[in-house]
Protein: Redox-sensing transcriptional repressor Rex
Amino acid sequence: MDKYQKIPDVVIKRLPIYLRYLDQLSAMDVETVSSQQMGDDLNLNPAQIRKDLSIFGDFGVKGMGYRVSDLSEKLRSILGLDKEIPIILVGVGNLGAALCQYNRYQSPSTRIVSVFDGHPSKVGQTVGSMVVKPMEDMEDFVQQNKVKMGIITVPSQAAQKVADQMIESGITVILNFAPTLIHVPSNVKVQNSDVTTELQALSYYL
Ligand SMILES: NC(=O)c1ccc[n+]([C@@H]2O[C@H](COP(=O)([O-])OP(=O)(O)OC[C@H]3O[C@@H](n4cnc5c(N)ncnc54)[C@H](O)[C@@H]3O)[C@@H](O)[C@H]2O)c1
Structure:
């Protein structure tokens, strides 16, 4: 995986989009697809798609395009989705609970396996198929289950503390839904998901 580590984030972010599209094609029994067709359907530049995919090897067949099954298998392997990735979530409020319930329909490779909350009234409740655990149990759970990915769905003012606790436990990749910047060491990757800033950016097009 080392050789992929210098790939720009923007390229990495497009790979799951390609993968979801290929899964849709596969469900329709489509066997091959050209970069032109991919570009039309995904509203992306075909040359950009070819360039993105060529970073990982040459899987296009001249005059035929890409084999859907080969390309999706390759993308799954590049993204590490060919194995199960256990995820923990901290903050089982409105958003946290919704994500847990949605997660049941997600691919088995990225699955929330345990949820934690700091409020006694939440501990012991069931969300999806999981029982909410107290924060004190997080570190042992993360270490015993070799969990590396965590989701933060606590209020902004608690996000940094929760991130620190996650990192201390062994988490190295964080998806942060709290609308605040969290500071992490250089070996930890954070992705922020902020609906408000997305809406603000979209308002430009009105
Ligand atoms: N609700 C939304 O639609 C939405 C959308 C986008 C982003 N967000 C953001 O997601 C976060 C959660 O939103 P929400 O509406 O679910 O909030 P919420 O108040 O319903 O839930 C927050 C949960 O975090 C827990 N918590 C608080 N401090 C904690 C700590 N130190 N350790 C562990 N658990 C702690 C609380 O007990 C609670 O269960 C917020 O930062 C919010 O801004 C929410």
User: Anything to note?
Assistant: The mean pLDDT is 91. The pocket of nicotinamide-adenine-dinucleotide is lined by residues 90-96, 117-119, 122, 135, 153-156, 158, 161-162, 177-179, 195 (CB under 6 Å). The helical segments are 9-27, 35-42, 46-54, 68-79, 94-103, 138-144, 156-169, 195-203.
